Amino acid sequence: MKILRFAAAGFAAALTLTACSSGSAGGSTDATDGGSEGAEIRVWLAGTDTPQDARDYLKETFEEQNPGSTLVVQEQSWTGLVDKLTTSLSGSDSPDVVEVGNTQSPTFTSAGFFAPLDDIAEDLGGDDLLPGFVESGTWDGTLYAAPYYAGARVVFYSEQMLGDAPVPTTLDEYVATAKSVRTDTHSGVWFPGQDWYNMLPFVWENGGFIAEQNGDEWEAGFSSEGGIAGLQQVQDLFQNASNAPKDGDETNLQVPFCEGATTFLSAPSWIKWSILAEADAEVPGCPETYGADLRAFPLPGKDGGAAQVFAGGSNVAVAAKSANPDLAKDALAIMLSDEYQTILAENGLIPAKVSLADALPDDEVTAAAAAAAANAQLTPATPKWGDVEAQKVMQDALVRLAQGEDVAAVAEELDSTIESILNG
Amino acid sequence: MTSTTLRAAPPSAAPAPRASRAITPARLLPWLLLAPSLAALGVVTGWPLVRLLWLSFQEYERAQLMGVPAEWVGLQNYTQTLTDSRFWTVTARSFVLMVVCVVLTITLGTLIALLLMKLGRAMRLVLSVGLLLAWAMPPLAAMLVWGWMFDTQYGVVNHTLTALTGESWMGHPWLIEPLQFFAVATLVIVWGAIPFVAFTLYAGFTQIPHEVIEAAQIDGASAPKRFFRIQVPYVRAIYTVLIVLSMIWDLKVFTQIFVLQGIGGVRSETSTLGVYIYEMGMAQGHYGTASAIAVVFTVIMLAISAYYVRATIKEEEL
Predict the structure, then answer these.
(1) Residue A307 · residue A375 · CB < 8 Å
(2) Phi first, then psi: what are they for A400, rounded to 5°?
(3) B206 part of contact set with chain A, CB < 8 Å
(4) Closest alpha carbon to B186 in B91, B101, B259, B251
(5) How far is it, in rounded angstroms, from Cα A117 to Cα A133?
């Protein structure tokens, strides 16, 4: 008996040890290399949004300007980006240049994760930089994160799918059209339950707001009159226009579109490339079927025109703990150069410099995105907003709305949660 | 880190002898043999625990990660945690999940161990390999696959149920209702935990002398009687270890819940203690408060382990 017990306990102890030792093994690059001779600059880009041409241009230009040094682009996933950056940027093996989502950047700028850019702000573009993104990259009057690119959500549709129905010109028409074409197997608009970006325009257009600063206190506005009206419209879409999973998120939106499962798809403009991806690509699209006559329009506002939509996009910054801050700033300057930003623009991303808007391709999707971006809104400018996103409180509230819970009750609760985080 | 290694070593110098005799090499030997594992434990578990305790008395946010000095706040993190109703809801939820998972794991593990005893060589091999594969699968990879199986739109579970029942299950969201969410989570946790329990019990059962069982059989004891009166008492110590270990593992379950929440469901209604600590610490950057919760959690775990250690020592004395 003793032997049995001993063996079992030993086995268990061994397991506990292996479980503990599987932690991170750290990076391998030598961060102690202080000199600029032969240094390696690591640039972290988020997701696949930056086109390959731009990455190549960055690497070549940097290595040409800084002989002996190398630049590596490392792609990070958008999922869990804040966690990853928090640990890497505060550690001893920090990357040098990082891209962050524009709504995430106050989380880092407010806590000293980024190096100040005031000395090179003029060279980066000065007043030519996208103002909303300069704001999200600024903390206490100092610029820490430069704008990188912007994007906006547009409504995609396929002509063969919409048929003779007219393209809606107001938000109410959009809701009505989406509801009228919906069947058990076909959605009028694809609206997964966690897609809070697509909820915001309805709140804004009906006169609601996310949160406003009232003296020292933040006050959330989903339970305001306009907020409730907007959320009611959202619930109407969830229940009567969409067959998307009530707790699904907004990843791989091209899949339902390419299946022909929906008439409208409200998505970031760069989803176009996913829809048009070759059928034998790693993530295939449908250029020959529903992508063949792909069209787009900006989400219409309550009274016509373009609706106020969420301004998505990225900021780019130099890590405070970068071993070679000067070289890192050089790399950042290349990423904001006219040449680099033109490559982004040619691929349909709205460039960080207002003056480069002419480089955007002359097609309907880009035009729709530009119209939407002109009326785009930002999330509340407080570092605590990142916590609201990280805790996914809006997603939770939306999933409950999608299931048919009472709008006023959900909105009240959502507001009190947001207020407790922003004022906490 | 090096200082911890040094700090963990001193026990070898002070073996605390019962009698006041000089330290002989024979007394030193056990400590020397223990030293490497003590050092490893000190670095891997000891130091993080000390840091955790330290942090739990500070206001430690993201800015402190970048070198801003942290402020000592005494017991504030603890009072905040213990007066937060969310903490108690999450704790209660974790315990209920733990109880359900442990009962299922031990019951099913026992049944599979008994099955292993009865099977012929070929089938036993097949079953063992199957169990080993489930055991060897990293939880994250396993969770993603389980997530696909329960996918709302394309999941094989909905597809199979539609084919079997004739009703349309397509589009049934498995994770949206907390009860169904935990049914799926329990399934995956138990699936992953059974192999260890089954193998350990199987090893135990095979050590029971044949004559004892045979004698009982001749005396007319039925199979259930033989199981409860002979087999279980013989391996009672193993059961104690397994139950306590399962309790600890199932209480601190993280990956399964966290990944499932990423696939669907409502986070605020499905978080367990491990995920709650993550939300507080990593997601929101309140490292001090998160540490306080973790310390409370550790105390709970220690209480459970203490029972196990006491039970083991008692057995030893018999």
Answers:
(1) yes
(2) -70, -40
(3) no
(4) B101
(5) 14
Residue range of the domain that includes A256 = 152-310+378-422
Residue B20 to chain A, least CA–CA distance (Å): 31
Same domain, A263 and A388: yes
Collapsed DSSP state (helix, strand, coil) of residue B149: helix
Distance from C-alpha of B251 to C-alpha of B273, rounded to nearest angstrom: 8
- The helix or strand, by DSSP H or E, that contains position A211, with its residue range, turns out to be strand A211-214
Spatial contact of A354 and A185, defined as CB atoms under 8 Å apart? no
Give the separation between CA A137 and CA A104, rounded to whole angstroms. 9
Q: Is the pLDDT of residue B241 over 80?
A: yes
**Listed residue (A169, A156, A152, A130) closest to A364, CA to CA:** A156
Q: Stretch B72-101: mean pLDDT, rounded?
A: 94
In the DSSP assignment, the letter for residue B60 is -
**B81 belongs to a structural domain:** yes
Asked if the Cβ–Cβ distance from A20 to B45 is below 8 Å, we say: yes
Quote the number of domains for chain B.
Answer: 1
Closest CA to A93 of A322, A410, A361, A401: A322
If asked whether residues A143 and A185 sit together in one domain, one would say no
Which of B62, B85, B235 to probe by mutation at the A interface, max A CB count within 10 Å?
A: B62
Name the strand (E) or helix (H) holding A174.
helix A171-180
B86 is in which domain, residue-wise?
Answer: 67-317
Spatial contact of A313 and A348, defined as CB atoms under 8 Å apart: no
Residue with tokens 């059974």: B194
Residues A236, A175 contacting (CB under 8 angstroms): yes
Residues A297 and A261 in one domain: yes
Is the C-alpha dihedral spanning A401, A405, A408, A414 positive or negative? negative
* Domain identity same for A24 and A135: yes
The number of folded domains in chain A is 2
Give the CA distances from residue A387 to residues A150, A249, B284, in Å, rounded to whole numbers and listed in that order: 22, 19, 5
Residue B260 in any domain: the answer is yes
pLDDT at B264 over 90: no
The residue among A378, A412, A11, A401 whose CA lies nearest residue A221 is A412
Separation CA B180–CA B264 (nearest Å): 12
Pairing of strands B58-59, B71-72: antiparallel
The answer to whether B252 contacts chain A (CB < 8 Å) is no
Nearest-CA neighbor of A162 among A43, A16, A290, A352? A290
Within-domain flag for A165: yes
Whether A387 contacts B284, CB under 8 Å: yes
Residues B180-208 have pLDDT tens digits of 999 999 999 999 999 999 999 999 999 99
Q: Domain check: are A186 and A321 in the same one?
A: no
Q: Does residue B294 lie in a domain region? A: yes
Check which CATH number belongs to the domain holding A125 and give it.
3.40.190.10
CA distance A297 to A301: 12
Q: What torsion, rounded to 10 degrees, do the Cα atoms B11, B17, B18, B24 define?
A: 150
A207 occurs within a structural domain: yes
Across the interface, whether the CB atoms of B283 and A83 are under 8 A apart is answered yes
Averaged pLDDT in 10-residue chunks for chain A of 424 residues: 44 41 37 57 90 94 93 89 91 93 90 93 90 89 94 91 90 95 92 93 95 92 96 96 89 90 91 86 86 92 91 93 93 95 90 88 87 85 84 91 94 95 87
A400 and B312: CB-CB below 8 Å? no
Distance from CA of B151 to the nearest CA of A (A): 9
Q: Which residues of A touch B68 (CB under 8 A)?
A: 111-112
* Cβ partners under 8 Å of residue A151, min gap 6: A49, A268, A269, A270, A312, A313, A349, A350, A369, A373
Task: Name all contacts of B209-213 with Cβ < 8 Å and 24+ positions apart.
Answer: none
Q: How many whole angstroms separate alpha carbon B95 and alpha carbon B87?
A: 12
